[in-house]
Amino acid sequence: MNKQHPLLEIRDLEVSFRTENGSLRIVHGINLSVEQGETVGIVGESGSGKSLTSLAIMGLLPYPNGYISGGEINLEGRKISNLKEKEMRKLRCNDISMIFQEPMTSLNPVYTIGEQLSEPLKQHTKLTSRQRKEKIIDMLHMVGIPRAEQIVNEYPHQLSGGMRQRVMISMAMLGEPKLLIADEPTTALDVTIQAQILDLMRRIIKEKNMSMILITHDLGVVAEICDKVAVMYAGEIVEYTDVRTLFNEPLHPYTQGLIASMPNMNERKNDLYSISGNVPRPSELPQGCHFSTRCKFVTDRCKVEAPPITTVKHPVRCWLYEEQSKMEENNDVRHIVTG
Known about the structure:
Blueprint: E1 8-19, E2 22-34, E3 39-43, H1 50-58, E4 66-75, E5 78-79, H2 85-91, E6 96-99, H3 103-106, H4 113-124, H5 129-142, H6 148-151, H7 161-173, E7 179-183, H8 191-208, E8 211-216, H9 219-225, E9 228-233, E10 236-242, H10 243-248, H11 253-260, H12 300-304, E11 310-311, E12 315-316, H13 322-338
Parallel strand pairs: 3-8, 3-9, 6-7, 7-8
Antiparallel strand pairs: 1-2, 1-4, 4-5, 9-10, 11-12
Helix pairs in contact: 4-5, 5-7, 7-8
């Protein structure tokens, strides 16, 4: 890998959909980078644009309505956001792979586990049938699946939710990709299985020195596994920093609300905090700041003018920090001038 480039770099990404009323922008202004061996979390409520961003990276936007309408995605310095499907297919599995949210809808019910795991190996390797089976069994053992030799001949409905999710992880890992994208990998699982899956993913990432983008609405999961976090709201990143800073010094009112909503942040179980309102639809975004209709610090300016990303202690999209940012910029200039 070229040391001058991050493994993945997203610049001003914009994703739109063709509708009966014309083009509708869903995601915009996404700037994000992932270094080798780093895990970056993308967190936000449903409708924030997290999964759509991951599908754009994978080249899996729903055709023909969904498309990248601006910006670019680079992998090891190579632009991949304009590649044709045939070229993207070569990257998937070998360079980028994805664990989808619901394994029961991702696995084909009429094919055995072994048949489905064999498919990417047929497409991307020259292994014999016997070698493929051996590699699949080894991978199933690696992700903690017992009696793997028998399970390769079973069907998805014969496995528990936790086992199906382990199969999905093994499928994503078979090509030993450089970047793994995990979209809500533990959402449908109970708490005990969630912890097992997270421990498994953390171990594999470390052993293989892989990079990962973890998409989730659960800040508890982010705290467990991520190095950096991008907080998304209504199609844009509103805050981006390392995980420790996010929990210790959250700047954006939306991030503060998400952290305050965590059960373990409340002293009494019956006194749970929640952010009022809902994420607006892309066609109903308020003028100005997208969070203005739910923010307790809203000003008149917030309602009419959209804030840019401002770097205070770390990047944040909020008018609250404009003056502080200017003061820090002036201090930096004075420091440079005075030596």
